[in-house]
């Protein structure tokens, strides 16, 4: 039996969460997006006035998310995939690469945050500082898309593309492949 419960992505808690807020610094996309009003599960889960007050107080501190979890399951830490993109890039090649990465993550229901380096100087600075020296171009700055798992650098588009071609995207992202996926089956064959 499934039930709705509250969780806070900023604490890394929850399963299959969908953030209800959006900012210019980044958007979280998970297995399903909800509109910016409280969906029906909140009204059934939060019945008393004190619960509503607590929920709104918590929302002021952290982005509020609706999580679907099994009643017997405990909250599990989630890894956050961050994809640094440039929303106003003049390069069609960069736009296609960004869309390729984001489209793949969405299609495979892999939760991620989009971090726009064109709209937010802090995102640009953080991305440039955290791409390792051996992955930077000989001249200039690293170009988007750049992919991180939390703050751990995972690679650029070329590394992502190679992992996708080898059915190793979950390993590339530092995630566990879901049971039944091509990647999980390939890992099982290698271990056998």
UniProtKB/TrEMBL annotation:
Appears to function as an adapter protein that bridges proteins together or proteins with mRNAs. May function as a ubiquitin ligase-substrate adapter. Additionally, associates with translating cytoplasmic ribosomes and may promote the expression of specific mRNAs. Belongs to the SH3BGR family. GO terms for molecular function: SH3 domain binding. Monomer. Interacts with PFN1/Profilin-1. Interacts with ERBB2. Interacts with ATG12. Interacts with BECN1. Interacts with translating ribosomes. It is found in: Cell membrane; Cytoplasm, Cytosol. One of its GO terms (cellular component) is nucleus. It holds the Pfam family SH3BGR. Transmembrane segments: none annotated. Keywords: Cell membrane, Cytoplasm, Membrane, SH3-binding. Signal peptide: none annotated. It comes from the Eukaryota. The gene is SH3BGRL. CDD domains: GRX_SH3BGR (cd03030). This is SH3 domain-binding glutamic acid-rich-like protein 1. PANTHER family: ADAPTER SH3BGRL, SH3 DOMAIN-BINDING GLUTAMIC ACID-RICH-LIKE PROTEIN. The lineage of its organism: Eukaryota, Metazoa, Chordata, Craniata, Vertebrata.
